[in-house]
Amino acid sequence: MANENRISVLWINHSESDDLVMDQLANKGIAIRKVSLSDLDGILSDQFQLAIINLSNNLDSLRVVQNHQKFLESSLPILARVSRDEFELGIEAMKRGVSNVIASDVDNVNEISTLIKSYALARDTSSSFVFADPISRKLLALTQRVAAADVAVLLSGPTGTGKEVMARVIHESSSRHKGPFVAFNCAALPENLAEDMLFGHEKGSFTGALSSQAGLFEQAQGGTIFLDEIGEMPLHLQVKLLRVLQEKKVTRLGGQKMIDLDIRIVAATNKELKKAILNREFREDLYFRLSAFKLTITALTERPLDIIPLAEQFLNGEASPNLSDAVKSQLLNYSWPGNVRELQNVITRALVLANGQMIEARHLIFDDIQLDDVTDTSEQRNFSHTDNAIHFNKKVLEPESTESLSNVIRNSEYRTIMSALENTRSRDQAARLLGISTRTLRHKLQRLREDGMAVTRAYAR
Fold first, then answer.
1. Fold: same for 2-125 and 134-296
2. pLDDT attached to residue 123
3. How far is CA 225 from CA 156, 168, 197, 257, 389, in A?
4. Sorting pLDDT into bands at 50, 70 and 90, what band is 319?
5. What band does 113 get if pLDDT is binned at 50, 70 and 90?
6. How is the beta sheet containing 30-35 ordered, strand by strand?
7. Would you state the pLDDT for residue 425?
8. What is the rounded end-to-end Cα distance, in angstroms, of the chain?
9. Coil, helix or strand for 80?
10. Residue 229: what pLDDT?
């Protein structure tokens, strides 16, 4: 029975020196499968909660993994291990979308275990959504009723509220629960690659098509296909998707045969699609096809009774540290612009900083990022793991005395920013490490200086 709850991790480019780390992780309930780059074709990415890859000198191996078909079709988080003397390589890996970076030349089994368990929880639908608040309970009841009717569903709500989790709830509460659940992010790939992935292709249909390939619609036969960020789908693909919905058939690229489909479509968006229709960015007929039933997921602050239960579920189980009363108060009083996703990031950072001890207010580091200061969505993604990479910092200072909650937050942010500046050669590099824009970093430094913190004018300008 114990093995049923083991976390499975794919370890790519392992070395003999990793064997001891792997054995210690196995003792913590984490099953490791070692694989080389040449053996990726033989693995199924959906059997794992996390991939770990050893990087050395360059990002070539990471490019191979990220461009591999099975990784393109999954949302498998990737943890990169790099040597401390290859600090710049770690930054570049984060910029390319790696979920986390950790030093490979130190004894860091506890850090790796903590991160693995955090990401495993994020992929476990039973631990990713809490229905404690009355608003959430009403949504769950309505969702289960909708799941019983085999109709298309459109999920709307702010970024990070858990729309994919709700899509899985719909799937698992329906008569299709024994079938596959296939997720696809409509904004993740260029139009030509997205078309190939969705509809598949026949052998010889284009250069490099050496064999026939079923698309995601076919792979979802008997189950559910989840189309995330549907508002970002190009108009050309919207036309093809509308035809699939109307005819319940799909034709592969380069093919003539129409393949019958038995699938349910659940789409999600954080955009106002009616406004997109007025701007001629989204087809009105497709909107009505997708929204046979529309469910709206509210922001986390509008369902405050979910906050603490969610935070406790992100704490990795029975052996995890507890939240202090001060921490709970801060979590309840924070605005959560990033919703559940941001809450998970905050708890993940706190787990790393607390190192197995009770989580106190000094361990909380909030994003506190103004979206209009962000010039690239990747900056938001990278910043969400700022302190997961805390092992690159030279030191983490403890407060010398009891402070007010606002001072704790300010001092924690100050320590993190100054550590990034100390460990990089320029303010631009520090901003990249923190996952924020240089402009945002400049504003933060100026604000800290105005609050009396020790920030030189060179940094604050």
1. yes
2. 52
3. 16, 10, 12, 21, 34
4. low
5. confident
6. 30-35, 7-12, 50-54, 78-82, 100-103
7. 73
8. 59
9. strand
10. 92
For the stretch 118-141, pLDDT in tens is 566 545 544 445 777 888 888 888
CATH number of 134-296: 3.40.50.300, 1.20.58.760, 3.40.50.1000, 3.90.226.10?
3.40.50.300
pLDDT for 20: 83
Taking a C-beta distance cutoff of 8 angstroms, is the pair 345, 364 a contact? no
Q: How far is residue 327's CA from residue 460's CA, in Å, rounded to a whole number?
A: 30
User: Considering the domain 2-125, what is its CATH architecture?
Assistant: 3-Layer(aba) Sandwich (3.40)
Predicted confidence (pLDDT) per residue in 213-266, tens digit? 888 999 999 999 999 999 999 998 999 999 999 999 998 888 888 999 999 999
Cα-based distances in Å from 433 to 57, 99, 341? 19, 13, 20
Q: What residue spans define the domains of the chain?
A: 2-125, 134-296, 303-460
Six token digits for residue 297:
């997921």
- Residues constituting the chain: 461
Give 303-460's CATH code, choosing from 1.10.238.10, 3.30.1960.10, 1.10.8.60, 2.40.50.140. 1.10.8.60
Q: Measured between alpha carbons, how far is 83 from 251 in angstroms, rounded to an integer?
A: 48
Q: What is the longest distance spanned by two Cα atoms in the chain? A: 73
448 Ramachandran zone, left/alpha/beta (phi>0; psi -120 to 50): alpha
Q: Is the pTM of this model over 0.85?
A: no
Whole-angstrom distance, CA of residue 273 vs CA of residue 250: 25
Under 8 Å between Cβ of 368 and 380: no
